Amino acid sequence: MSGEPTPQRARERWLDALGEAGWLAPLASEAVAVAAAAGRVLAVDAAATRAVPPVRVAAMDGIAVRAADTVGAPVLIAGGDFALVDTGAPVPAAFDAVVRRERVALDGAGAEVAAAVLAGADIRPVGEDVPVGEVLLRAGHALSPFDIGLLAAAGHTAVEVRCRPRVAVIPTGDELRSPGEPLEPHHTIDSNCPMLAAQAAADGAVPTIHPRIPDDPQRLGEEVMRAVLQNDLVLLVAGSSRGRRDHSRDVLAELGEVAVDGVAVRPGHPVLLAVVGTTPVIGVPGYPVSAAFTYELFAHPLLCTLAGRPVERASVAVVLDAAAGGREDSECMVAVRFAAGAEHQLHATPLSRRAAALHSLAQADGYVIVPPGPGIAAGTTVPAFLLRDR
Fold first, then answer.
1. 66 with 97: CB under 8 angstroms?
2. What is the homologous superfamily of the domain 30-52+128-162 according to CATH?
3. Can the peptide bond before residue 74 be classed as cis, meaning omega within 30 degrees of 0?
């Protein structure tokens, strides 16, 4: 093994340094309208303030009756002894059952009921779906569109949610150009910053891509200080390695503390985990796949902690269709694409592991973690962590 810490140990060291600096999580909360709360994370438990349904309602179109009046059916019920009801409409208090429309013949004499019904037939009682006071969703839950409907039906007009983390993404490098800028042959289009900003947005954060900073330590330091004063996480992209134009390490050490300088993981080992003031900063390696997995390993769990929600990615069991080679000195993150297999098994094909293989990453459904050692043989069942919804 190398002298670099494992990803888990690196996270622990970083969190220790953040705690010593006075970093606090989760973030404060705010009240937002239910209709605008999709994707937000509940700060407190949400209980029903109104029963669903709030009164007895008809479960089917038909007539409301007294069940006792249908005994001996077929029977004719006089006009004053039943009421027409539609699905979802309140059932008058005088009646205790609903006869479905297809089992009733209406004429001037009343309603002829073809078959007897029991008390409660096709009536939804008060609170059948949601009783008043029932806890619907717990703190830390990210609200889905269906949760929004449930909260609205249960009487909520607003909910208390965690403030969205603010994430600064700072591109660095003389050769870098933003998408749409004029290009010379030696220029590199910045794909990392849009990708990292999109990853942060998918985690419920509010990302901002800062102006590109050239390979100038003073300007880099000034931009980092601007970012840490306004954000909950700063991603400093490229410059984390040890080339002659890589200044991130020295700048972060001067402004604050570099808690971790390199991690025993491939791709992404030259990552920097730092704290400036009380703000966490990640020095993100410049290769696209390294950048993506650096976000996955360190930015994603930190943003989850800030939002007060569970950190772990969802995973599924997959059968590897090909061997996933390992390294003795590092964990390896291997992107995989899923496919249905025999006997309802989910199979996974390892994709290119080159640190610049962005096309492979775009095809990936998830990734597997190969522990230090020779690797994982084909046909082995392993957990795969999801990178996208399926």
1. yes
2. Molybdopterin biosynthesis moea protein, domain 2 (3.90.105.10)
3. yes
Angle between helices 248-255 and 217-228 (to 10 degrees): 50
The pair of three-digit structure tokens given for residue 345, joined into one six-digit string: 């098994």
DSSP 6: P
Could you give the CA distance from residue 329 to residue 321 in angstroms, rounded to a whole number?
25
pLDDT in tens, 182-198: 777 777 778 899 999 99
Which tens digits make up the pLDDT trace of 312-352?
A: 888 999 999 999 999 999 999 999 999 987 777 899 999 98
Gap between the Cα atoms of 210 and 273, Å rounded: 19
Cα separation of 124 and 106, whole Å? Answer: 24
CATH topology of domain 7-28+164-307: Molybdenum Cofactor Biosythetic Enzyme; Chain A (3.40.980)
Q: Beta strand 57-58 with 123-124: parallel, antiparallel or unpaired?
A: antiparallel
Element at 306 (helix H, strand E): helix 300-307
Task: Specify the CATH number of the domain 57-124.
Answer: 2.170.190.11
Fold designation for 315-386? Beta-clip (2.40.340)
Helices (H), 177-294: 192-202, 217-228, 248-255, 288-294
